[in-house]
Amino acid sequence: MSESLIPVTVLTGFLGAGKTTLLNHILTGDHGRRYAVVINEFGELGVDNDLVVDADEEVFEMNNGCICCTVRGDLIRIIGALMKRAKKFDGIIVETTGLANPAPVAQTFFVDEGVRAKTRLDAIVTVVDAKNLAAQLRDSAEASAQIAFADVIVVNKLDLVSAEEITAVEAAIAAINPYARLIRATRSAVDVTAILDQNAFELSRILAFEPDFLDHAEHGHSEGINSVSFEVSRPIVMQKFQAWIGALLQEKGGDLLRTKGILDLAGEDRRFAFQAVHMMADGDFIGPWQPGTARRSKLVFIGRELNRPQLRRGFEACQVPA
Amino acid sequence: MSGVVALTDRGFTRDLGAFVVAVAFNRAGSQAAFGLGDGSVHLAPIGAAALSADWARVEAHDGAVMALVPDAAASGFASAGDDGRFIRIGAGGGVTEIFASGGKWIEQAASVLDGKDGYLACAAGRVLHLFSAAGARLRSMDLASTVTGIAFDGRGKRIAVSHYNGASVWFTASTSSAARVLTWKGSHTGVTLHPAGEAVVTSMQENALHGWRLADTQHMRMTGYPSKTESMGFSRSGKWLASSGADAVVLWPFFGGGPMGKPPLELAQIENVICTRVACHPKDELVAAGYADGTVLIVQIASGRVVMLAEASGVAISALAWSPEGGRLAAGREDGWAALFDLTAR
User: Fold this and answer.
1) Mean pLDDT for chain A?
2) CB contact, 8 Å: A81 with chain B?
3) Whether B19 and A58 lie within 8 Å, measured CB to CB
4) Which one is predicted more confidently, A246 or A27?
5) Which residue, among B261, B273, B264, has the nearest Cα to B297 in the 3D structure?
6) Measured between alpha carbons, how far is A105 from A112 in angstroms, rounded to an integer?
7) What are phi and psi of A256, to 5 degrees?
8) What burial letters (b/e) apply to A11-39, b meaning 16+ CB within 10 Å?
9) Staple partner for B251: which of A142, B130, B265, B324, CB 3.0–4.6 Å?
10) Is the Cβ pair B164, A61 closer than 8 Å?
């Protein structure tokens, strides 16, 4: 990954969760970095930053046959224009409206070659209100989606909840997405370095940490979004995997919010990292396997109506014959 | 390329220090202007004076210049910026404000002058504003999504804009704000109008152009580009539509029934180097083209003959414009390099 690509952080979260406070905290923090901020409402953000851009969240469908391939056209324009500016900045923060689905923002970074040439999606950060998350998950599909897409989740307003409630909130999050990193906060006061420049979308970081697979599997009931993960021990045949995952994403991409994996490909000494947002997939070789460690391929799905046995059989069938 | 003539001694260059977003000549052809990513506009006199004289630097926008066009008058320019201002820049560098959006970026601008009738236009977000040549706001039109391009036809009778799911066209003299809406699903990122008003063409997110013949709203699909078309325009005669987005200048025929089902002409190919800017000559069937590697050249449509003006530098050409009489060409690069080429007989 090129160092010169500008990192983009997507900030999601329901109205009142503390997004704006977090944004102010980032922009006024003493970290010596300059951020361009793309927001949806001028005025709401009372912050002194000459790089605040007022955007209309304009989503359009790509004409490529994927019903879920929606992209933020305004972001493509804004990023293109920001790159022409003489005043340089270290990163871009894209704030989405409370009810927004993060998928179109993420997909924008897969689809547009101009955007890909200049920027990289760094992480999706979701701010949740610890007091109200349970109710929001009950009432709204978007709340679950924002957690499902997140790489980092700021569990905010801890001063308003008990220790038991914190445990319950974190369990509810893990039931949907056990792979996101949780950061506890009060009044959005978090260490900025824990949110920005995470390289969460960098393929080498995928599955860098190892969640407890069995612990969280199959007990999420928030809008039907949960996660499953699989591990296989024999090397993967690339053609078989491509054929299987390609057909799977094409058919079920609407329900598969995020897919990530590290593969041990037959005949390869390097690890292959794979990720997808809905139907849009990306993959590349990352560093070699550590000597002395077991080469095992792992695949994680976060989405709706995940058919565990079917997915397992499909993934297992991609291995070289026993 | 075969038959290449090098005329690389006909230009002189300056380093303006910031991304050249747009370049334009005034309508009299006596001054060129370069609009930059640091908000400045640089005014260059034309002719021998440009070599020696200082180019006036105008602090036009607080932020970046987003669009720069000739004023709807013999001299001067109009520019739009991400400071939400649409301004007029006089020949001497004086600035007067035409319109302020209240903070919203003004990303698009256009102008036209035919005889003594002229118009200026700009777009802030989803609203298109049409002004008289004097700068009085005539009408404001609300669109369903952001305006991504504005174009007038050759005589200023029509104005067209691109947006999500198509384009909209108005008669400038009409008092009705109701547009003729041309529909095609997808994200349309730029627009041009046939000089005689025969067709509207948009560039699209999906590396394609889409056209509508205005007589019968016949659709025209123009595909096959390896990357997005960021620059396009009709030749003076209206016979050809020149476009960027491939490793050649791609020209679609707009005669003998139009471009449907026909392959385009591909001229001045530089293998694996994308053409980033095209500019059709104001009088002859010639196209100037700039490439991602910094090459600037002119190609004759009929013969395919190429005249090389600037060799590859490694930095993409980001702006290109002909003077109104066609004797001079201005070009700018992403790194602030600006060039004026004198192609008049010596």
Assistant:
1) 86
2) yes
3) no
4) A246
5) B273
6) 11
7) -90, 100
8) bbbbeebbbbebbbbbbeeeeeeebbbbb
9) B265
10) no
Contact B18 A86 (CB under 8 A): yes
Task: Give the residue among B70, B158, B74, B153 at the shortest CA–CA distance from B116.
Answer: B74
Partners of residue A71 in chain B, C-beta under 8 Å: 187, 205
Q: Taking the CA of residue B32 as centre, how many other CA atoms within 13 Å lie in the half-sphere pointing to its CB?
A: 32
Is 50 exceeded by the pLDDT of residue A252?
A: yes
Angstrom distance (rounded) from CA B79 to CA B34: 10
In chain A the first and final C-alpha atoms are separated, in Å, by 35
Burial of B304 (0-12, 13-18, 19+ CB in 10 A): middle
Instruction: Report how far residue B40's alpha carbon sits from residue A227's, in angstroms, rounded to the nearest whole number.
Output: 52
> What is the distance in angstroms between the Cα of B19 and the nearest Cα belonging to chain A?
6
Separation of alpha carbons B34 and B13, rounded Å: 12
pLDDT: is A139 or B76 the higher one? B76
CA–CA distance, B135 with B90 (Å, rounded to integer): 13
- Six token digits for residue A260: 């990530």
What distance in Å separates the CA atoms of residue A157 and residue A73, rounded to the nearest whole number?
A: 34
Length of chain A: 322
The pLDDT of residue A194 is above 80 = yes
Residue range A30-86, pLDDT digits in tens: 888 889 999 876 555 555 566 788 888 888 887 766 666 889 999 999 999 999 998
Nearest 5°: the CA angle B99, B104, B106 is 55
Whole-number pLDDT of residue B295: 97
DSSP secondary structure string for all residues of A228-244: EEEEE-SPBPHHHHHHH
d(CA B217, CA B221): 13
The distance of B126 to chain A (nearest Cα, Å) reads 9
CA distance B297 to B306: 7
pLDDT confidence of residue A43 = 52
Residues B39, B85: Cα–Cα separation, whole Å: 11
Residue B221 at interface with chain A, using a CB cutoff of 8 Å: no
Model confidence, pTM: 0.89
Q: Between A and B, how many CB-CB pairs are < 8 A?
A: 74
* Smallest Cα distance from A3 to chain B, Å: 19
Interface of B with A in 170-189 (CB under 8 A): 185-187, 189
Cβ-based neighbours of B39, under 8 Å, separated by 6 or more: A86, B59, B60, B61, B62, B63, B64, B65, B81, B83
Beta carbons of B107 and A56 less than 8 Å apart:
no
Sign of the alpha-carbon dihedral angle for A100, A101, A106, A107: negative
Q: Residue B93, exposed/middle/buried by CB under 10 A (0-12, 13-18, 19+)?
A: middle
What mean pLDDT value characterizes chain B? 94
Of B64, B164, B189, the CB nearest to A85: B64
Nearest to B104 among A54, A86, A87 (CB): A54
Query: For residue A85, what are the CA distances in angstroms to A76, A278, B277?
Result: 15, 33, 19
Query: Phi/psi zone of residue B343: left (φ > 0), alpha (ψ -120 to 50 degrees), beta?
Result: alpha
Q: What is the mean pLDDT of residues B322-339?
A: 96
Spatial contact of B147 and B114, defined as CB atoms under 8 Å apart: no
Written as one letter, the residue type at A84 is: K
Partner-chain residue, chosen from B63, B148, B185, that has the shortest CB–CB distance to A77: B148
Residue B344 has pLDDT above 90, yes or no: no
Q: How confident is the model at residue A215 (pLDDT cuts 50, 70, 90)?
A: very low
